[in-house]
Amino acid sequence: MIHLLAGPAIHVAKVRCQECSKQKLPGEVIIAGDTTRCFDCMVLHRTRLADFLAADYVNCTVCGVKLFTSSNLKGYMTIIDGAYGLLCRSCRDWYRPQRRDLYGETSIGRHLKM
Length: 114
Prior knowledge:
This protein is an alpha+beta fold.
């Protein structure tokens, strides 16, 4: 005969992944600085990063303005439509408030009062 002990249920607080916005258990996320990513998004991040580094980006992903002058990068890397892209400053300033789910709980989001 098996006896089960009755007791209070264990409550485990979940953590929100900043990329997919899903609630995950603490053991399913990686926290690096102020970025929280689940394992699935970390694998996707590495794939995106490899694709980004292999591409020849010279223009803003949104407006097409040239981002390189004299070997100086004037762009900001961000996630757009599931891939990394480079944005000029004006497109970045337009795009960031629309992605409170990505930036809201980061130091940038706190600085911008998102």
